[in-house]
Every structure is written in structure tokens, then in C-alpha cells.
Design goal:
Layout: E1 3-5, E2 8-9, H1 16-22, H2 24-34, E3 39-40, E4 46-48, E5 53-57, E6 66-69, E7 76-82, E8 88-93, H3 98-111, E9 121-127, H4 135-148, E10 154-161, E11 166-169, E12 172-175, E13 180-183, E14 189-193, H5 201-209, E15 215-216, E16 218-219, E17 224-227, H6 246-253, H7 264-277, E18 291-295, E19 301-303
Parallel strand pairs: 1-10, 3-14, 4-6, 5-15, 9-10
Antiparallel strand pairs: 1-2, 5-8, 6-13, 7-8, 7-9, 11-12, 13-14, 16-17, 17-18, 18-19
Helix pairs in contact: 3-4, 5-7
């Protein structure tokens, strides 16, 4: 079945402008969404999703109340939720392999909703802006087309993407909303920021930087964040970037140099330093096992000691 908007199948579109012209309520919903107050999410209840990661859980989860992600410029943040089971998945998509990623997100939610007869799948898309290279626009169309190809009925509820997530500041286009959270108990989706992006923030950034594919990082049945095992080879050439100016790093390592959050360059440098410190990924995964993190009573993520 196609992607559905107000219970009608989405017709073929050639631009996001066409989508919003045909569905003015989506434009209105986007305006309402981006005017919601920004929530600073408490890390004690949060499961943070980095670029090219996804995570899914249900309202029965005692370890996670909010799944969230931010720092999206041309990237899109995707929330898929089953209204019957309450199962929800959030993904941070950068266009690396949209067509293989979308079925993973659908499966993540449907596999947690097996016993549920009632309800429907609802989709919320946030991200992108009017960038010069049209990277956001292409990703918007690809994500919509990939959901259109799924066999399940999927209802598009929120679509705050590309031109509907664009603002001009001092002559420069940038996103209005860079981050979102989803309340696992209620399904509420809201603009959000995250001062804490753990666990294993540097390791996870290194995985994406070295070309890792979309990874589901959470086992909701056990309340465990599961990272890796990742695979990368020594690459001393990347040390070159550490001696470059901030402007050079932005120009070559970002899809949207003028719109990045202020910590982007430092984040890149920290990731490169991590890779230079750990040139061989095998040492981080003894016995080829993933790194596992559980939530302590204090609300922190702590690495599980594996036998």
C-alpha cells in the first residue's frame, strides 16, 4: 500500500513544494510543530540516537522514556509509531542508503507490535532545509518514496521537512528544528536538544565517520544499548584534518557548512582523535563482542562487564 495522507494514497510528486501545495494541512502541521517550545531532555530518561542509527522500544520499557536525536541539518529525523502497541522507532537518516534503511525501521516497529490487532502505523518526518545543493530536498523525496514502497499502510502525520523547516538568519538558510524527541509512553513528538549524547559517543561517531551502515543500537527486551562490533582499518591520513582551520573542516566535512551547530568542528576533531587513538577497531571489541551498556539506578548508562 502507498503512504497515506488523511487516508488517501500519496500521488507521485516531483518536489516537496508539490507535496505541500496538494496537502495544505501538512504545511499547517509543520508550522505548528516548529513553533513548539524546545525541550532540553533529561539524560536520565533518554536514549540518544546518533547519525545513521535507529532505536525502537515500547511503552513497557522501564529504562527509556524519550528517544531523541539532534544536530540534523540536511539529515532527516524519522519517527515511526504503531498507535495500538505504542511501539516506536526513531532514526537519524543521512541518505547513505535510504532504500535499505526504511524497511529496517518498519520491521523494528512491526516486530514489537505483533500481538496488536488494533491501531495503525504513523510517520513523523522532521529535518532538512533549503540548502544550496538541494541535498535536503533529494533526501526528503527519497524517504517519502521509500515509505511509499512498503507493503504496510503508513500514515504521514508530521512533515516538517526542507522548505517547511527553513529559516533565513543573516542571509543564510538554516533549519528551524535541528533535533526532536519522542515520548515513548505517549507518542508525542517535539523539538528537542540534548546536552548528553552518550553512551559511547566517540565510538559511535567513529563508526559513522568510517562508513558504518544504519545500526539498530537498542535491545528493548533487555534495556541494553548495543554498539558494534565495528570494523575500520588504520588511516593515519585523517590526522591532516587536525591541523586545518575550522572553515576548511566545515567546507569539506559537512554537507551544509553554513548551517552546522557551533560544536560541529570540535565534534569532528574529537572523532578523528578517537580514530587515531584506536587505529584498529578490533581492540575495542574483545572477542569480537559488541559493547553493551545498561541503565543504572542513577539513570546513567554504564558499560556491562562481559564474561
Amino acid at each position: 500500500m502507498p503512504l497515506l495522507i488523511q487516508n488517501r494514497g500519496l500521488d507521485r510528486i516531483s518536489s516537496t513544494a508539490e507535496l505541500f501545495d496538494r496537502n495544505p494541512h501538512l504545511k499547517e502541521n509543520a508550522r505548528k510543530f516548529r513553533s513548539k517550545p524546545l525541550v532540553d531532555v533529561d539524560p536520565k530518561c533518554l536514549l540518544y540516537v546518533q547519525q545513521r542509527e535507529c532505536a525502537a522500544t515500547t511503552p513497557a520499557d522501564n529504562c527509556v522514556s524519550v528517544i531523541g536525536s539532534d544536530d540534523a541539518t540536511t539529515c532527516h529525523l524519522v519517527v515511526l509509531r504503531h498507535t495500538g502497541s505504542g511501539a516506536v522507532c526513531l532514526a537519524h537518516c543521512d541518505g547513505a542508503s535510504t532504500w535499505s534503511e526504511v524497511p529496517l525501521l518498519v520491521k523494528a516497529v512491526t516486530s514489537l507490535s505483533d500481538v496488536c490487532k488494533e491501531g495503525r502505523l504513523e510517520l513523523h518526518l522532521v529535518g532538512g532545509f533549503n540548502d544550496e545543493s538541494k541535498t535536503s530536498h533529494k533526501l526528503s523525496l527519497n524517504i517519502l518514496a521509500a515509505f511509499q514502497k512498503q507493503k504496510e499502510d503508513i500514515h504521514l502525520e508530521t512533515c516538517c521537512i526542507t522548505e517547511m523547516n527553513d529559516i533565513v538568519v543573516n542571509g543564510t538558510h538554516r533549519p528551524v528544528v535541528y533535533g526532536i524527541g519522542v515520548n515513548v509512553k505517549t507518542g508525542d513528538v517535539f523539538p528537542a536538544s540534548f546536552p548528553h549524547k552518550g553512551p559511547a559517543e566517540e565510538l559511535r561517531s567513529a563508526r559513522t565517520f568510517t562508513g558504518g551502515q544504519m545500526a539498530d543500537i537498542y535491545d528493548s527486551s533487555q534495556g541494553l544499548v548495543r554498539i558494534g562490533p565495528c570494523k575500520w582499518s588504520p588511516n593515519l591520513d585523517i590526522a591532516f584534518w587536525l591541523s586545518q582551520s575550522d572553515d576548511t573542516i566545515l567546507k569539506y566535512l559537512s554537507t551544509s557548512p553554513m548551517a552546522e551547530p557551533p560544536h560541529f568542528v570540535q565534534h569532528m576533531k574529537t572523532t578523528i582523535q578517537f580514530l587515531l587513538k584506536h587505529p584498529n577497531s578490533d581492540s575495542l571489541f574483545p572477542g569480537g563482542q559488541p559493547q553493551l551498556y545498561y541503565r543504572t539506578e542513577r539513570g546513567d548508562w554504564e558499560r556491562a562487564v562481559q564474561p
